[in-house]
UniProtKB/TrEMBL annotation:
It comes from the Bacteria. Residues 206-385 form the Tyr recombinase domain. Belongs to the 'phage' integrase family. It comes from Lysobacter firmicutimachus. This is Integrase arm-type DNA-binding domain-containing protein. The lineage of its organism: Bacteria, Pseudomonadati, Pseudomonadota, Gammaproteobacteria, Lysobacterales.
Length: 413
C-alpha cells in the first residue's frame, strides 16, 4: 500500500497481503512491487522507450530494500532519458560477461585440455592440468587476448623463485600450446610465450640415476633377489629390470592384461604415454615371478595392489623406497633407471636400436613406419627379452664375469 503522497513505505510493504492473483504496489516513476501468490515480492520498473512499453526487473524484496530499488529506478530512468534501453543493455552486458568468461586463459586451457584427454595417458593429462593450474592463479581469469609477455613471465618467475626451474620451462611450454589453440580458434592473435625465449634460467639437464656397469648391475640384482620386504614389492623389484617398463605402467599392471600362456603383457592404449597399445614379451623368468605372485594377488584387479587400498595399485614411491632400503640412494638408482640400464646394456650388446626403442615404447614420429615397425619388431623383441633375462641371470650368478653373451641373431646389428 502507498501513503497519501503516493509513495510506498517499508511498513506498508511489510504489512501488504498477498492474494490469489499478483498484486502491484506502485511507488512512482514507474517503480512498483509485485506481490506473487506464492509469497514472493519482486521490484519492477515500467517504462517506455522508442514508442514501446517495457518492463525491467529491479530485484527481489527484501534483498533489495525500498531505498535501493528507488536508486536503481533513478539510474535506469537516466539511461532511458539518454536513449539507452536498460533492459537491452543488461542483456548485452550479460552476453559480454559470458563471452569474457569463455575467453579467459583458464576457460581456454580447460577447453584445450578436454581435447588432449582423448590422446594423453591419464598421468600425462594430470601433469598438463597441474602445470596450467599453476598459471591459472595469476592469469587464469584474464581475457587471453589481453595477456602480454611480461604477464606470463611474472608468473613463471614465481615458479622459478621456488627453485623449480624445469617446472617453469614446462609451464611455459604448456601455456604456449594454449595460446596457439586460442589463435587457431580466433580468440587471440599471438602467443606471448614466443617472446620469452631466453627469459628463464636455463635448465641443467641431469640424466636419470641408473647403474649400467655389469659389475654394479650384478650387485643390484643380487640385492633385489635378497629383498625381504613385502612379497608384492619384492616381485615388482624383480620385474623392473626384466621388463624395464615405465614405473607407472609396472605398478598399475593388471592380471587381465597378462597372457601368461602366450607370454605377453598387453598394456592398453589408455595407460600409455602415446595412447597406443604396447606389447611387452614376457621371458620365462618374468612368468616365473608372476606365477609365484598369483596366489597372493591373483583374485584382485591389480598385480601389485596398494597396502592401504587394495582396489588401487601400489604407491608410485614403493619401488624407489625399496631401493633405498637396499642401500641405493636416489642419485644412484631409481625405478625409472631400469629403463636406462636396459637401453645402455642392450645397445652395447649389439641389439638393433629400433628394436630397443620399440621395446621402450618410445614414439616413432613417422606414422607409416611406426605401423611397419610394430609388426616387424615383435618377433625380434621376444628374442631380445629372452636374451636379456638370461643375461641378467648370468650377471647375478657370475658377478665377477664381464662376458656379454647373446650378441647374435637377427636382433643384433
Amino acid at each position: 500500500m502507498a501513503t497519501s503522497s503516493g509513495k510506498l513505505t517499508s511498513v506498508a510493504i511489510k504489512n501488504a497481503k498477498h492474494g490469489p492473483k499478483a498484486v502491484r504496489l506502485f511507488d512512482g516513476g514507474g517503480l512498483y512491487l509485485e506481490l506473487m501468490p506464492n509469497g514472493s515480492k519482486y521490484w519492477r520498473l515500467k517504462y517506455r522507450i522508442h514508442g514501446k512499453e517495457k518492463r525491467l526487473a529491479i530485484g527481489i524484496y527484501p534483498e533489495v530494500p525500498l531505498a535501493e530499488a528507488r536508486e536503481k529506478r533513478d539510474e535506469a530512468r537516466k539511461a532511458i532519458k539518454s536513449g539507452i534501453d536498460p533492459s537491452a543493455k543488461r542483456q548485452a552486458d550479460r552476453r559480454l560477461a559470458k563471452l569474457s568468461s569463455e575467453t579467459t586463459f583458464a576457460a581456454i586451457a580447460e577447453e584445450w585440455l578436454g581435447l588432449q584427454s582423448r590422446k594423453l595417458a591419464p598421468v600425462t593429462y594430470a601433469k598438463a592440468e597441474w602445470l596450467l593450474g599453476m598459471l591459472g592463479s595469476d592469469i587464469g581469469q584474464r581475457p587471453i587476448a589481453e595477456i602480454s609477455p611480461p604477464d606470463v613471465l611474472a608468473v613463471l618467475r614465481k615458479i622459478e623463485a621456488s627453485g623449480r626451474h624445469e617446472t617453469a620451462h614446462r609451464a611455459k611450454q604448456k601455456a604456449g600450446q594454449v595460446f596457439r589453440y586460442a589463435i587457431a580458434t580466433g580468440r587471440a592473435e599471438r602467443d606471448p610465450t614466443a617472446d620469452l625465449r631466453g627469459a628463464l634460467s636455463p635448465v641443467v639437464s641431469m640424466p636419470r640415476s641408473a647403474l649400467t656397469k655389469p659389475a654394479d648391475v650384478a650387485g643390484l640384482l643380487r640385492a633385489i633377489w635378497g629383498y625381504e620386504g613385502q612379497p608384492t614389492t619384492a616381485a615388482a623389484l624383480k620385474l623392473a629390470p626384466l621388463l624395464f617398463a615405465r614405473p607407472g605402467n609396472l605398478r598399475a599392471m593388471e592380471w587381465g592384461e597378462l597372457d601368461l600362456e602366450n607370454a605377453e603383457w598387453r598394456i592398453p592404449a589408455g595407460k600409455m604415454k602415446m595412447r597406443e597399445e604396447h606389447v611387452v614379451p614376457l621371458a620365462a623368468q618374468a612368468i616365473e615371478v608372476l606365477t609365484e605372485l598369483r596366489p597372493l594377488t591373483g583374485k584382485r584387479k591389480f598385480v601389485f595392489p596398494g597396502v592401504r587400498s587394495p582396489s588401487r595399485p601400489m604407491s608410485e614411491n614403493t619401488v624407489n623406497a625399496a631401493l633405498r632400503r637396499l642401500g641405493y640412494e636416489k642419485d644412484v638408482m631409481t625405478g625409472h633407471g631400469f629403463r636406462a640400464l636396459a637401453s645402455t646394456r642392450l645397445n652395447e650388446m649389439g641389439w638393433a636400436p629400433d628394436v630397443i626403442e620399440r621395446q621402450l615404447a618410445h614414439a616413432e614420429r613417422n606414422k607409416v613406419r611406426a605401423v611397419y615397425n610394430r609388426a616387424q619388431y615383435l618377433a625380434e623383441r621376444k628374442k631380445m627379452m629372452t636374451a636379456w633375462a638370461d643375461y641378467l641371470d648370468h650377471l647375478r650368478a657370475h658377478p665377477e664375469s664381464n662376458v656379454v653373451p647373446f650378441k647374435q641373431g637377427k636382433g643384433a646389428q
